[in-house]
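Entry 12.
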Amino acid sequence: MADADLEQIRKARLAQLQQQQQSNSSGPRPQDDQRNQQEAEARQSILSQILDPEAADRLGRIRLVKESRATDVENRLIMLARSGQLRQKVTEDQLKGMLSAVAENKEEEKIVISRRKGWDDVDDDLLDL
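Predicted 3D structure (tokens):
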């Protein structure tokens, strides 16, 4: 390929990338915002129908501390409600059981530091002074 061909391809690719960047940087579209708002309202409506007030309050407090865990529990509750497995409103005790089940599924990663004994440590040299 000639240098002129490569330059033409580069210019076309650069124009394409700039166009994509402009469309992405324009921010969320009003239609997306409206759809997200409708989905959030639908979730809240479903949750208000299937949760006791105490359980809804506890879920709200959990959301303040760990939003991902609250979202997981909400998704599980909505799935159970849609499949017809919930016969009555979820109480606070039932919500606690569900929270412990979610906590067991998602164990936090723990960092373990193992130090080697007898390794040549630079800090030991400072003790000789």
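Annotation: The mean pLDDT is 82. The chain is about 70% helix and 0% strand.
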